[in-house]
Specification:
Structural class: mainly alpha
Distance between the termini: 44 Å
Shape: elongated
Order of helices and strands: HHH
Largest sheet: none
Helix content: 40-55%
Length: 61
């Protein structure tokens, strides 16, 4: 596996695109020549959840 410290913006865009296609972390890792743990940590550290309310109501903190 590649021992680079950081992922590039291009790699992150590829990860996002492949996750949208429901690819596994193993498949993405093989494609980018990275360990699947690196991919999963990247996703875990940069995930954003969309806040939404119940049906018919808006979200309130």
């Amino acid at each position: 596996m590649n021992k680079q410290k950081h992922l590039t913006l291009a790699s992150r865009i590829i990860i996002e695109a492949m996750l949208n296609k429901d690819e596994s972390f193993n498949t993405i890792g093989r494609f980018l020549n990275k360990d699947c743990i690196t991919i999963s940590k990247e996703v875990k550290n940069h995930i954003c959840f969309e806040k939404s309310g119940v049906y018919g109501r808006t979200f309130t903190d």
